[in-house]
Amino acid sequence: MPESLIPSVEGVRLASMPAKIKDWQRNDLLLVELAEGTSVAATFTQNTFCAAPVTVAKEHISKGGVRALVVNAGNANAATGARGLVDARATCEAVADALEISAEQVLPFSTGVIGEHLPMDKLLAAIPDSVTQLDPGGWEWAAEAIMTTDTRPKVASRTLKVNGEEITVVGIAKGSGMIQPNMATMLAYVATDAGVAQPLLEKMVCEAVEASFNRISVDGDTSTNDACVLMATGARGEVISSSEDIGYRELHEAITEIHIELAQAIVRDGEGATKFVTVQVDGALSSEEALAVAFEVGDSPLVKTALYASDPNWGRLVMAIGNAIKGELDTDKVEIFLDAVQVVSAGGRASGYLERAGEQVFSKPEFMIRIELGRGTSSEHIWTCDFSHEYVTINAEYRT
Q: What confidence tens digit (pLDDT) does each residue in 104-155 have?
């Protein structure tokens, strides 16, 4: 195995193993061991048909003292009834036995096909071997082990000085389709060796998620298995317990930056995606209205197919805006820009707008759609991508 380019996080050990959950030649099981005393906070999917591991992870994290995470790819263990819960708990018990901790100190996570039971014989057989492979390095391989339709691993890191002490923050994520989180992303794990008090860590993960994973959409679907976990081992520096403490601002900024980098990586790796697009909405009555308009534009299949075709069909943009706004809309105040190119003014085609200028923007791999509503002072943005022929192919053949 080549040397890792990602720094280790003191107090965290990882192991990636091939459990053969599916018929593939790759690692698909990740075990994360956390030092005693690590603070752990998480956000979970708001999809009401949530997966069995989400239910169990919520139960266990509420009791505190988390010492390990176990993640499998290839099978979501969702819509699996009572047996799914039994299997998720059995996985925790196997990890607990191998690490000599309590089963309630283990958080289980799964990702993959919905509606199929876990191959527990394979999963349980791989856990003892994974414990023997635990190592402080290997974040890149951890990111690979949790992939499903992802084309590349998603990993980010930062190092910073807090009161003279070097602090490390590392994060990994997986996600490529079934992406419009209403809390986090498909699966994301961020760890730091800084010490952070539990209540403050919970605040930090919520704020970081809101600025990142709650601003992305590939296809408008929220997964049954989404989770974002933030871990602070406390191996370095003083414990930060207040937003007024030394180092809080720097650490909060680094953690948020990592969440944003991972979230954007998910959109860039959207299933079949060829375009990365920022949808910026200004002049809204509220943040909620701005986000509603941004997601209506970013989720629209008609807009997304136009993005893929490099066709600046701005009629689809005004259609999406009108669908999102509740109540009266003074269309004469609406303006739309593609990067610096103004397409719509006073509710219609902008004078001087040339189709070829719009095509040039839509042909770029990255650009911005900016919408001015002229209704208020609130602004929001999201990141989205296009729909290509490959998106249909990937999802049509997902189980074959």
A: 999 999 998 889 999 999 999 999 999 999 999 999 999 999 998 788 899 9
Alpha helix stretches (DSSP H) within the chain: 52-61, 81-99, 120-132, 139-145, 198-211, 248-268, 287-299, 301-308, 314-324, 355-362, 389-396
DSSP codes joined into one string, 45-104: ---SS--HHHHHHHHHHTT----EEEEEEEE---S-HHHHHHHHHHHHHHHHHHHTS-GG
pLDDT, the chain, mean: 91
| Sign of the alpha-carbon dihedral angle for 226, 96, 68, 6 | negative
**In Å, what is the CA distance from 152 to each residue of 16, 146, 148, 397?**
16, 11, 10, 19
Three-state SS for 173? strand
DSSP letters spanning 119-133:
-HHHHHHHHHHHHHT
Spot the catalytic one: 185, 222, 278, 384: 185
In CATH terms, the fold of domain 12-268 is: L-amino peptidase D-ALA esterase/amidase (3.60.70)
Domain limits, the chain: 12-268, 276-396
| Cα→Cα distances 235→13, 34, 295, Å | 13, 11, 40
**pLDDT for res 248:** 96
CA dist 321 and 325 (Å) reads 6
Coil, helix or strand at residue 236: strand
> Which amino acid appears at position 52 of this protein?
A
Closest residue by Cα to residue 279 from 392, 181, 366, 376? 366
pLDDT tens digits, residue range 320-373?
999 999 889 999 999 999 999 999 999 899 999 999 999 999 999 999 999 999
132 catalytic residue (yes or no):
no
In the chain, % of residues over pLDDT 90: 78
Provide the edge-to-edge strand list for the sheet that holds 341-345. 216-217, 378-385, 276-284, 366-372, 335-338, 341-345, 348-349
Copy the structure tokens of residue 224: 């049954």
Query: What pTM was computed for the model?
Result: 0.90
Inter-helix orientation angle 81-99/120-132, to 10°? 20
- Return the CATH superfamily for domain 276-396: ArgJ beta chain, C-terminal domain (3.10.20.340)
